[in-house]
Every structure is written in C-alpha cells, then in structure tokens.
Amino acid sequence: MTRKSSPYAMKLKRQGNHYNGAEYLNVIQRCRSFSADPIPGSWLEGTQSAATKAMILVRSAYVAIKTGKSPASEYRDFDLLAHALGVATLRAIDIGGPDDFDNPMLRILRDATHAMERCRERRLRIGAWGFDGPALDQVDAGIELYETILQESSPAQMEEVTVRRVEILAARRAQGLEAK
After folding, report:
1. pLDDT, position 2
2. Which residues contact 11 (CB under 8 A, 6 or more apart)?
3. What is the C-alpha to C-alpha distance for residues 140 and 176, in angstroms, rounded to an integer?
4. Rounded-to-integer distance, Cα 91 and Cα 156, Å
5. pLDDT averaged per 10 residues, the chain (length 180)
6. In this predicted structure, what is the pLDDT of residue 55?
7. Which of 119, 141, 143, 112 minimizes the C-alpha distance to 66?
8. Distance (Å, rounded) from C-alpha 38 to C-alpha 74?
9. What is the number of other CB atoms lying within 10 angstroms of the CB of residue 160?
10. CB-based burial, 21-44: b 16+ in 10 Å, e otherwise
C-alpha cells in the first residue's frame, strides 16, 4: 500500500526539497519571546540559550573594554557593543515610538551610544580602548536595557531589527557617512 502525497509535497520532492510537516512549530518558536520552555506538545527546545549566548557575548565585550583587555588593533568588542545598542534602539522605537519624551528607553540608549562614541574617540586619540567615568554607568545601563528588550522580544523580531540595522549602516556607508 502506498501513501499518497499532496501536490505540494510532490512538487518539493521533484525539486529536491522536502516537505516539513512540523514547520508550524518552527514558526511558533520564532514568533514567541525567548524562553527555556519548549512549545507544549513539541520536542523542540526553547530559545533561551540563543538569548543567553547573545547576552554573554555583549557582557564579555563590555568587560574586555572596561578592563583594558580588548586589543587596541581590533574592533570586535566595540562592534559587538555598538551593534547591541543599535539593535536595542531600533526595538525601543518599535516598542515605544521615536519620541524621547514618550519613550524613556531612548534616553538611556542614546546616552550609551554617546558613551561608545567617546570610547571610539579615546581609541583614536590614545590608541587604547576604554571608557570614561560616566561611560561606565551609561554603557552598563544600555546593556541592561538591551538584555531586557532581547528577553521580551521574539527571535523573529530580533532578526528583523538586525537586518534593518545592517541596511541602515549600508545606506550610511553608501552616503559616505560614518557608521554608528
């Protein structure tokens, strides 16, 4: 006895692809907030490990710059922090709007972004990464807000805002503006 496939499944098979009957679980998982809990009735693991890994990478970059262990010749730690703050800013605008008065998250993230600009200026001026006094608190507050936004967002939202940030940076480079 042979089992009949749907026309869609047969088309995928002819093209060398396969039909994923559990794709709906992937969609649910990508569209709900990061969580360690699996989808009820599913064998898929939660997405919390991805969020935790992102938070650890950002915190490690902050500590490396803060303690002076980030190599002056590399931008990796700086870029990780700048990316996290940029993504958090775009998500904060999505969540609370673009007005500083109505959206208190933007003040925190803008202060952290200005602190990162001072960090980059310091690197260019003296050849070493580091934060000034106020920047320590401002960047730390920005990272805490990034972690909160990440935790309350879905993987799909974070991916979409990352793509949007990359497009913004590419447009700035095309215009000859410095990426922030």
Report:
1. 55
2. none
3. 30
4. 12
5. 66 69 76 86 83 97 96 94 98 95 96 97 94 97 98 96 96 74
6. 97
7. 119
8. 38
9. 15
10. eeeebeeebeeeebeeeebeeeee
